[in-house]
Amino acid sequence: MIQAWSVDDVRAAEERAMAQLPDGELMQRAATGLAQVVAARLPDDTSTQPLVVALVGGGNNGGDALWALAHLADLVGEPLDLVAVLTSEHRHEEGLRAARRAEVEIVDATRGGSKGGSKARRRSKALDHAVEALAVADVVLDGVLGIGGRPGLPDLVTELLEAIGADAHVIAVDVPSGVDPMGEIVGGAGVFADETVTFGCAKPVHVLGTASRCGMLTVVDIGLDLGRDHASASAARTAPAAERVDHDDVAALWPVPGPEDDKYSRGVVGVVAGGEVYTGAPLLSVTAAVCAGAGMVRYVGPPGPTQLVRAEVPEAVHGTGRVQAWVVGPGLDAHPHSWDQLGLAQVEAARRALDSELPCLVDAGGLDLLDGPRTHAGARTLLTPHAGELARLLARLDPEASGLDRERVVVEPLRWARRAADLLRATVLLKGSTTYVVPPPASGLAVRAQADAPAWAGTAGSGDVLAGLAGTLLAAGLDPVDAGSLAALVHGVAAHDANPGGPVRALEIAQQVPRTVARLLARAAEVG
Ligand SMILES: NC(=O)C1=CN([C@@H]2O[C@H](COP(=O)(O)OP(=O)(O)OC[C@H]3O[C@@H](n4cnc5c(N)ncnc54)[C@H](O)[C@@H]3O)[C@@H](O)[C@H]2O)[C@@H](O)CC1
Ligand SMILES: Nc1ncnc2c1ncn2[C@@H]1O[C@H](COP(=O)(O)OP(=O)(O)O)[C@@H](O)[C@H]1O
Ligand SMILES: [K+]
Predict the structure, then answer these.
(1) Which residues of the chain fall short of a pLDDT of 50?
(2) pTM: predicted TM-score of the whole model, two decimal places
(3) Residue-wise pLDDT tens digits, 206-240
């Protein structure tokens, strides 16, 4: 599990550490670790002298970059060209002195030029020089903003970023500048890094939807006590703000049956999905549930899709009966015509599932049946909307979200998923290239974010597969956060495994699940 701590928790941990250490020691640890990574990324070709350019902001992030350049000069035996481009009128004076001592070239990009916006700026010689260096740099260090950064960048920095050559290896110091360190706001101006070197622990930006901006992540140990018990003024044990389940967690979480198990003890999942119009969704959800290893799958639906499921998934049984969890809603028409008896009966079956005390996964049309929290307080509930469905749900139920649209959910996915989780007292799994699993805020549990699927997985019916997969895990007794994040991981990996590097149809994702689960379980045996 990758765990990330909030900026406030990191700052508190830094203070605790600094109280025990000589002045400047933490930054030295950070900068030394950073310099080692940079040294490892220098080109092997020794015919030309490698050029490392650091963009240096006015805070401690800039300090890290300056000290890293200074250490790099010592660390690498070969001659190097080292350039620090200052992007702020504030300076980390100690870092600057160290860089000067190490004969790093200092270019003050803020100097000269006329006042006014960027277009009116008369480019100073220093700025021109910085732009030229960035165009040919082997490695560019982004030390503009760290965890003190707010989303967005000054024009000068944007201009400098645009000058970075296509072949440069861009290393973000701690976080990619311009990107929200808390990972709440996705998109917007900012650095796209090939890799990020962070200090002490991962931050939310590294695991949430902003993770794609960070590239490969290296955590340099600087001796922070996050996640460990510590005796201090703020004695409470800190909890991570965000988590990501990875391949090595599958074995610990996946419900592997033992010799004492039978189909009932493994969990029966009931699927109330589809209708006479949408017949594909039930087939996909039921197939996925069977392939995920449900003890048994019951399908509830009208004759059309029932016939299809009978023909294609002989393992499924039909009609209502005892189950351990329900999947409600894939392909369900929540508002059938008053003359559509079969449609009305299907909505009735869905409502009965929602009114039960059993765990429920609620997807697609099932979401349209929710008017508030489920009647049985404490009944485990996992809602699985995509961004458009979440917008529609909140616009309907939350007066403060009236007019909410898909685009706003995409920019602030966590904010809106949290809101729905709070309003409906349910865990919200928000689907997309990053899938968020957001427990009700009152639970105090960390948000999870998974980004395991290739973009090929974004195909019609793929969500119906995820519903069957996650529903099976709920029926096996997993809580909604584990069921949702594990299902998202396995769904994504199965989409890759089914056809690495190429298109995949939803049914194939479902059919790949047995082998993907076996592979991930075997991997744990190898690692263990
Ligand atoms: N505190 C410590 O002991 C350590 C700090 N470290 C480094 O220090 C960094 C945090 O340093 P700081 O707290 O100085 O913060 P930053 O270096 O992130 O700089 C914040 C400054 O930039 C300004 N700013 C924020 N967003 C802006 C924007 N969008 N446009 C323009 N200006 C903006 C702020 O007003 C503030 O003055 C960490 O990310 C890490 O790199 C590391 O050296 C490890 C040890
Ligand atoms: N760009 C993407 N990259 C990776 N996975 C994606 C991407 N877009 C969508 N997905 C995944 O594909 C599935 C789509 O689900 P959904 O939107 O409900 O489709 P449907 O209703 O057609 O089944 C989700 O699991 C989602 O996380
Ligand atoms: K940075």
Answers:
(1) 119-120, 233, 235
(2) 0.94
(3) 999 999 999 999 999 999 998 766 555 454 557 89
Q: Which tokens is 463 given?
A: 């969500």
Is residue 27 within 6 Å of ligand 1 at its C-beta?
A: yes
Q: Topology of domain 266-527, per CATH?
A: UDP-N-acetylmuramoyl-L-alanine:D-glutamate ligase (3.40.1190)
Report whether 484 contacts 463 (CB < 8 A). no
Instruction: Give per-residue pLDDT as tens, 177-205.
Output: 999 999 999 988 999 999 999 999 999 99
> What type of residue sits at position 250?
V
CA distance 164 to 156: 13
Q: Which residues of 225-256 are buried (b: 16+ CB within 10 A; e: fewer)?
A: bbeeebeeeeeeebebbbbbbeeebbbebbbe
Say how many Å lie between the CA of residue 62 and the centre of ligand 1: 8
Annotated binding site for AMP: 431-435, 463
Token pair for 88: 């702020």
Tell me the C-alpha distance between 454 and 450, whole Å. 12
Distance of CA 149 from the midpoint of ligand 3 (Å): 8
Three-class secondary structure of residue 90 per DSSP? coil
In the prediction, which pLDDT does 232 show?
A: 54
Residue nearest (by alpha carbon) to ligand 2 atom 16 = 463
CB 322 within 8 A of CB 295: no
Other CB atoms within 10 Å distance of the CB of residue 169: 18
| CB of 218 closer than 8 Å to CB of 37 | yes
List binding-site positions for (6S)-NADPHX. 281, 331, 386, 464
* CATH homologous superfamily, domain 2-244: YjeF N-terminal domain (3.40.50.10260)
d(CA 271, CA 412): 31
Nearest CA to ligand 1 atom 38: 146
List the chain domain ranges.
2-244, 266-527
Strand ranges of the sheet holding 296-300, from the earlier edge strand across to the other edge: 2-4, 242-244, 447-450, 435-438, 427-430, 381-383, 360-362, 325-328, 268-272, 296-300, 317-318
CA of 456 to the centre of ligand 1 (A): 38
- Cα(13)–Cα(26) distance, rounded to whole angstroms? 11
Query: What pLDDT score does 413 carry?
Result: 98
Q: Which of helix, strand or coil describes residue 411?
A: helix
Give me ligand 1 centre to Cα 158, in Å.
Answer: 18
pLDDT at 77: 83
Burial of residue 101 (CB within 10 Å: 0-12, 13-18, 19+) is exposed
Note the pLDDT of residue 523: 85
Strands 296-300 and 268-272, bridge-based pairing: parallel
